[in-house]
């Protein structure tokens, strides 16, 4: 038995066999074979079949294409390589394992060998071998489907790409364990959306786990047990029951509205990335979507999504959360994500470069396709459009002008949409916060995007470990910006909410309510707890707290104040348990 | 056992195509043929093993063969490496 620690990013308990995903390719499990000679015959047959396939491909290549021919010839030579065959057979004989696993074992042997080569050209030849081994494994599995991919398993991988997760069947997947990743990595988001336990950033997991090993995974504590003892298995079964009870309790709390003791209603909405997350969003009691990130459809495929693709996704979301509203943020993406579509030079400082609304205004066609899809979906439920990274009035006007053009086109075509669709700006650039009174004349709402706002206001790159300690959501400047935005919004009689990570921090909730925010959008999992806290607050007391906090000179003092305040009122926070 | 040292003379070293030629030629002999570079040894009939020797221009390679046709095999592979593969 072995215990590995990682970051638990999606709560839940899972016990099951490991399914190791090698470099996002074919899934391989390890199992033992009794008849070694028969297994070797099976391997030889598969190798022959791969060879035949290559011969067929070769036949169809015209003689003039000498480059392609020589590649196929090299592949043929590799698949017939006596050394490869001998070594693989030896693994089958000595370890009594299936051919698939033996091939992967040999591949990793060659990978190590090739990785040490200095010549990058030679180093890359390993990809040729990888392809061949994939082909052979496919031949093996077509011949005799021994790996039971229909049995539920725990997926173990270095990292999961959107393409990997798209191929996985939720009904045969029990949990994810990856070697790299963070709370916000793709694996974490997908796991939470599917309600599957996940542990990421588990060092050496690929080295320690063999396909088929039994794993016990705790997605809350971030623990992974490899081949656990009976005692541990029983402990995990108890944990699973406790976790289910916890969920039932939370879902009861989730249905309540978030109203303070003195009657102030706070709208609690969810941040959403995937359409699949909608059932979860509803379970956790979100009153609509405060931030629908629309990048996913653009980054998961090679082609740009069509208007139809986007419309179907948006319509599903809108219909899924009706009667609550959905705030759709238009494309917030950097130029680097489109490298395959446009020939743009690499940017030295992409965070301050051509991205989000800037990129959309430079590519009106790209932008208009999305706006059309959003408007069409607005015929099916309440949508609000939000523009990201607006830095001043001109940009906002330019975006609005394009929106009006799309609306006019659609009227001409007789397409239905919500004529009164609300538009808003995401306040995340400090200049936008400073001219908020001017922006307020142009929009129906503000949403404070704290992740970028803090980064830009404090000039801190969160990803840079040297300065990450200076990333302080409670910095007095941030509180002043929030206070100012609330005031401006009141004067202009428009809505103001918050949709960054800050909105989902339990300790900050009394302060944010006290500063006057009436709409908070957060990761769905935290919603029941946030609602619970708000129901125990008095708006008057929160206002007093905000007044106290806003005059303090640094984040640390503000943090202490919040903690003390929460303790005095016995607000139940999970960290106290 | 027959041994012969040769120097890799082509610009790109023993890349995929020359390695393929060597492997194919080695497979046509009954002798057991090895290539040795320093302490590393590879079966000449395995393109993967030959590639993983990573022979760049100027590498000294020892061709070793034993068994039937050993002499012919060493001569043929030496000729291939010194005379022919630099044209690839």
Largest sheet of chain B: 4 strands, antiparallel
Catalogue the unreliable spans of chain A.
Answer: 143-148
Average pLDDT taken over every residue of chain A: 87
Regions with little confidence, pLDDT below 50 for 5+ residues of chain B: none
Radius of gyration of chain A, in angstroms, nearest whole number: 28 Å
Series of secondary-structure elements of chain B, N-terminal to C-terminal: EHEEHEH
Shape, per Cα inertia axes of chain B: globular
Pair with the most extensive interface? A-B, 19 and 19 residues
Assembly type of the shown chains? heterodimer
Description:
- The complex is a heterodimer of chains A (577) and B (88).
- With 577 residues, chain A is α/β, with parallel strands linked by helices.
- Chain A has 23 helices and 17 strands.
- Chain A has helices spanning 36-59, 66-79, 82-95, 99-115, 120-143, 162-167, 186-194, 205-208, 230-254, 278-283, 296-299, 307-321, 356-362, 364-377, 393-413, 430-434, 436-440, 450-457, 476-492, 509-514, 527-535, 539-550, 555-568; strands at residues 2-5, 7-10, 13-21, 27-28, 153-157, 173-178, 198-200, 214-218, 223-226, 267-272, 289-293, 326-329, 383-387, 422-427, 445-448, 495-498, 519-522.
- In chain A, the strands form 2 sheets. In chain A, strands 1, 2, 3, 4, 5, 6, 7, 8 and 9 form a 9-stranded mixed β-sheet that branches. In chain A, strands 10-11-12-13-14-15-16-17 form an 8-stranded parallel barrel, surrounded by 4 helices.
- In chain A, β3 (13-21) and β4 (27-28) form a beta hairpin.
- Residues 143-148 of chain A have low confidence and may be disordered.
- Chain B has 88 residues and is of the alpha+beta class.
- Helices cover 38% and strands 26% of the residues of chain B.
- Chain B has helices at 16-27, 47-52, 70-84, and strands at 2-7, 32-37, 40-43, 60-66.
- A 4-stranded antiparallel β-sheet of chain B has the order 1-4-2-3.
- In chain B, a hairpin with a 2-residue loop joins β2 and β3.
- In chain B, α1 runs antiparallel to α3 (70-84).
- At the A-B interface, α2, α3, α4 and α5 of A face α1 and α2 of B.
